[in-house]
Each structure stands twice: as structure tokens, then as C-alpha cells.
Design a protein that fits this description.
The chain has 222 residues and is an alpha/beta fold. Helix content is 53%, strand content 14%. A hairpin with a 2-residue loop joins strand 3 and strand 4. The N and C termini lie far apart (46 Å).
């Protein structure tokens, strides 16, 4: 299993920038210079890369301020994505799959934020606009975790209802199975409905996960 490091402050991002520069080779002059200034000990930075294969970055104030990317961040992320995983995890990955993509053989990057104004798709669009390639699977945001929580609560309620039907032992086994099948079909057609007091990004993420979301920003049309 690859190790995990959460960079919740700009200092950690700066250390990773120098680490990527030390392990992945030369990049643009401006990126290399920024990385060199951010960390004086490339030996320690290289050791960090050897120890960890997964990096989780906070976004606001760590990668960017508002709509501006911080100096050296783009080059640092590019080099991390091009840096191979440690030998131990690489051999583990190869044993699990005979063929793997180049991205799976390199360091993994995730973007963590408690900013709920955007959906995962919105954050990917912002990252792309800043010159950073990313997918929705790399974005960990509160709008997505909210959607997953609502769906998990619905699933839990459905399981409790199924157990309640099973406890009513007066009917035959066939009747119970028919009732459960009918209930499952009905539940699959039901979409959770929530009233949202929040931004459009939260609404978008809920809807993309099959949740009927109404409400939203002040003044929005129902």
C-alpha cells in the first residue's frame, strides 16, 4: 500500500516542489529556480519522495490565491506527476496487473478543499484554466462528500426497511421475496430530494450524483 502525506500548509507544498525537482530532473528555468529557493535541502526532499507515493494538497492558500497560481506550483505538480513511484509500490502494482498506465506508475496527486462553492467538475475546470491537468477522481471536496453522505443515508434506510419486511414472518418465503423485489424496484426509482442553502456548485454536484436538489443561491429560480 502506498503511503500518504497530506500537505495542509504552503510549506509542505514548497518542500514537495523541491523534492520533485531533485528526483524528476530539470524543468523550465523559472520552475527550477523557484523550487531551489523553496527548499535548501534536496537530500531531505528526495527522501520525502522516496517515502511517499500519494500527495494530497489543500488548494486555497497552498496552490493558489483567488484566481492566481502561486509561483512554482505548476512546475512542481508536473514533476510530481512524472516522478516514478518507489520501487516497493511499483512492484506491488505490477503484481496486481500485468499492464498498467504510465500514470499509475507515477506519484498520485489529489486536491482536497473545504470550499463548497464549486463541484468537482468546477474544480477541474479551474485547475485546467490554471494550466494543471486533473480529473474529477482527483478532487476531494465538500460538495462531493455531502452527496456521498446523503446517498449512504438513503441506502441505510433502504436496508432497514428490507430487514423490517424480512422480520414479518407471517408470509411465505416467495411472498417475502416478491415484496423485497418490488421494494427494491421502487427504491431504485426514488431519488433523494434535498433543499439546499448554498452555492450552485453544491447543487451541481448533488444533481450529478442522482440527488434531486432544490433551493440554492439566494434569488435562484426554483
Amino acid at each position: 500500500m502506498p503511503s500518504l502525506v497530506v500537505t495542509a500548509a504552503a510549506a509542505a507544498a514548497k518542500t514537495a516542489a523541491a523534492a520533485a525537482s531533485a528526483a524528476a530532473g530539470p524543468v523550465s528555468a523559472s520552475g527550477a529556480a523557484a523550487a531551489a529557493e523553496l527548499c535548501s535541502s534536496k537530500v531531505a526532499a528526495a527522501a520525502l519522495l522516496q517515502q511517499f507515493d500519494v500527495f494530497v494538497f489543500d488548494c486555497d492558500g497552498v496552490l493558489w490565491h483567488g484566481s492566481k497560481l502561486l509561483p512554482g506550483i505548476r512546475e512542481m505538480l508536473q514533476q510530481l506527476q512524472q516522478t516514478p513511484r518507489s520501487s516497493s509500490s511499483s512492484s506491488s502494482n505490477s503484481s496486481n496487473s500485468s499492464s498498467s498506465s504510465s500514470s499509475s506508475r507515477n506519484k498520485s496527486i489529489y486536491y482536497l478543499t473545504n470550499n463548497s462553492t464549486l463541484s468537482r467538475r468546477g474544480f477541474v475546470a479551474k485547475l485546467n484554466k490554471l494550466g494543471i491537468e486533473a480529473t474529477e477522481q482527483q478532487v476531494l471536496c465538500t460538495s462531493y462528500s455531502t452527496a456521498r453522505y446523503i446517498l449512504s443515508q438513503q441506502q441505510q434506510q433502504q436496508q432497514q426497511q428490507q430487514q423490517h419486511v424480512g422480520c414479518n414472518g407471517s408470509s411465505s418465503t416467495n411472498q417475502q421475496q416478491q415484496q423485497q423485489q418490488q421494494q427494491q424496484q421502487q427504491q431504485q426509482q426514488e431519488r433523494p430530494r434535498v433543499y439546499v442553502i448554498g452555492e450552485e456548485g453544491l447543487m451541481e454536484e448533488l444533481r450529478s450524483n442522482g440527488i434531486d436538489a432544490i433551493g440554492g443561491p439566494e434569488g435562484a429560480k426554483p
